[in-house]
Amino acid sequence: MTTYQFFTTAWTWNSFVLVLSILAFVGYFAAFGQRGKPLYFAAALIAFLLAFVSPLSALANSYLFSAHMVQHILLVLIVPALLLLSLPRSFSLRSPLTYLSHPLIGWIAGVGAMWLWHAPTLCNAAATSRNVSAIQTTSLLIMGSLFWWQVLAPREEERLSPLAGIVYLFTACTACSVLGIILTFAPVSICPVYQHPVDRLGILSTIRSSWGLTSDRDQQIGGLLMWVPMCAIYATAILAQLARWHSSPHPEHSNA
Amino acid sequence: MNGTTTIAEFREAVLDPAKRAHYRLAWLSTVDHKRIAVLYMLTGLFFFVVGGVEALFIRLQLAVPNNHFLHPDTFNQLFTMHGTTMIFLVAMPALFGFVNYILPLQIGARDMAFPRLNAFGFWCQPFGGILLHFSILAGGAPAVGWFSYAPLSETPYSSNPGIDYWAVALFVLGLGTISFAINTIATVISCRGPGMTMRRLPLFTWMNFINSFLILIALPVLNAGLAMILIDRQLDGHFFLPFRGGSAVLWQHIFWAFGHPEVYIVVLPAFGMISEMIPVFSRKPIFGYEFVAASTVAIVVLSSLVWGHHMFTVGMGRAMDLFFIITSMLIAIPTGVKVLNWSATMVGGRIRFDVPMLFCIAFLIQFTLAGLTGVSHASAALDWQTKNSYFLVAHFHFVFVGAIVFAMLGALPYWFPKMTGRMMSESLGRWTFWLWVIGFNLTFIIQHVLGLYGMPRRIFTYPDIPGWGWMNMVSTIGVFFMSAGSLVLVWNIAHSFFLGKVAGDNPWNAWTLEWATTSPPPHENFVALPPIHSRRPLWDIENPDRRDPVVGDDQVFLPDHNKTGILAFLFSEVGFFGTLILAYLYFYAHPQPGPGPKELDVPRTLIFSVCLFSSSFTFWRSEVALTKQRRGSMLGWLALTIVLGAVFLGGQANEYWKLFQSGVDLSTNMFSTTFFTLTGFHGLHVLLGLIALLIFLWMAWEGDSVSPKFDSGFKCVGYYWHFVDVVWVFVLLTVYILPLVR
Questions:
Q1: Can you tell me the distance from the alpha carbon of B382 to that of B193, in angstroms, rounded to the nearest whole number?
Q2: If phi over 0 gives left and psi between -120 and 50 gives alpha, with beta otherwise, what is residue B288?
Q3: Any CB–CB contact under 8 A between A243 and chain B?
Q4: ipTM score of complex
Q5: What is the pTM of this model?
Q6: Which of A115, A214, A242 to mutate to test the interface with B (most CBs of B within 10 A)?
């Protein structure tokens, strides 16, 4: 299969995902109507569909660790952030869940989502079993939401103060960079499934020869994706915190 | 001079030999930030002359083709010493001197947060400088470049002790720098005057505050690398020795993970100076304060992601090259934002062309050129062609001289009146300016061309290739202009110090707090602080009807400075241990024959680890007892903490002993090298913690535990102790547990 054929045919029209997306869209309007910010929600859905319907999904399923990493970033960092941004200003977590909004829980969830699912056993299991993959997706979305809640909660008073937010984001960025560095330089495969993919679509030779992605280089790119673009996302969030700080009318003691 | 001494008292003190002894030592024993700052700057100036003379010799050797003025080895030593000196003994002390003097004044503080730590940080500089230069007497200066690439820097290839002195000297200088950064952070967070909220900080203070975090990220990485190379050279380790299983490329990664942030560490203070001077001499507030401030943070975050662009020629692979190309191009954005804001500040201003402003303008032009050649190096394809040529030499001299030195040459006449009470001579200043601008551009513009003509770096001489001779001659001639400019500068400093025009409190009509006190400031800095509601308090006083908009609230939140200081210190330790752990993992993933993790007795170690972890619990109990003022119980829990820590150390010593018995020592293979290094440094930290705990036990025994100072110190030791335990969690996981799960 050539590259062109691949990108035109390898769309996964997974009915479950599509139905879920439509339901979510309807549910969103039913719940928030005009109060929400539907553009953010639409962007979140598009990112979600990109991860599961586009050829990226086919690549991530069995071929490329780096494609899996893009999926991972979309599910932990992009989709939850856009979801939180789409919520109306008045939205708040219900009381039984308040302990989940502790910054430490958020931090552990965000960093844990990266480290946990890259333990070789779990990474392999998620890439081979549909059920584990479903668990992984759900957990990534939840953990990502818990992480972003600290800086993107709809109500200002439920967010961390800007300077604390910077510390929160910076330490998370460092923790993920370390994993990215380890993946980049690791001489052994972190997720051995991707070393010898089952070539269901007949695209493997194209990937290996015309794309030039050997399994070593593939893992290196995966590590670099976690290290660099991921850090760029955190860095953007840090700058947003600075902007928030400089525009906030609050006295310093609540900022520091 | 202390404002309260009368002339009669002063004369009496000078005449009485016993009291005069105090004056002789005053500068050596001082803990006043202003005197320490002057010492920093004089150290920088002294080594500037040393490094400058080295540069002069280098250029004389290169002035004509086939020159044999210098021996090749001498030439290697000279360019190594020139680079090391200019970075570590000139740029850093001189910039830190300015920061030390001005930063506490700008925020209305009496002194730095830790005056004695400040003195320690300063004395590390001359000590490191002497160590480095002592190598000349001990068998030859290092001759492997300021980056000391392995394996050339390893014993089999460089057997003279020059590199050992180099590594120890840089380690000492690194400790001084880290202590300075801790002090700066604690000062800014905990010692600001009333109304000086974080959002009102002058940009010079803000940038140096943010820069201090970058120091705490980068310097510990270098220190870890230096420790490794010393272990290689002194204890027969093999971190960077390929034929023993080590990795020479690892050294490059470690060095540049420090080395690239280092560029920003020395350029951010310079940015801060420019951000102060351009508004004052344009008679306008800075354009887009928030953007200048925030772009500094962006630079700090990005600068730790770009080191690979120093290694395109190593062959890291296309994937890595690509990512480093992108990040290196990205970092041009926040830097460009700054240049834009400085230029926009000047637009429409009533610009006064005094010497500081002349240097600012030169800075803007030279630094923009440096940025253009810099961002072109971000492209790996171009980098491969120009990397080891004079094009690169020209590029980084544009950064270091065109940006940093020019900023300092401007900042000196700007702040000299504050430090001495006298103005520097304007006409001599102009001589310095033109001699430097002409000399600098003569020397370095032509080097771009030489590089594109193919002249490689680090060669002691070259054949008579058409064009090379005259271009090198031009380059050498430029050095004489710069030397003359420097002589004028030194004369200007000396002359103005005694005979300069009396300055008054605020000769430039500037707006930040340092100009609100006398010149020079009294020992305690301020008699009274003006009200602070905006970023330009002195403007508000002078123009009561046209005040700056009030920035945020007046409330200032000042956490305990001891707590801030220890947290900053522990932050720096993360980088140190992080580097050691990553190095361990790297070699763990490339197993060698011989001893490995299987030699380790995991259950035994777990038992001793439990001792260490429970010592965190007992320490916490001791703290609780202290707050409840139950002295006996506090002493008991503290003693138990010490015993548990000692048991852990005993267990580690026993483990080492057993390994030695079975013939495993540091030099056996990569596993043993990394294992002993990682656990050894952790053990050293436990030992230091034990000593600190013993001191506190002794103080509490003597009855000191009632003072609030004891309380704060005790908490800080606690933070350290818990941190050491947390590090052990990671060491335990990587060294002992990881092999079990794989």
A1: 50
A2: left
A3: yes
A4: 0.91
A5: 0.94
A6: A242
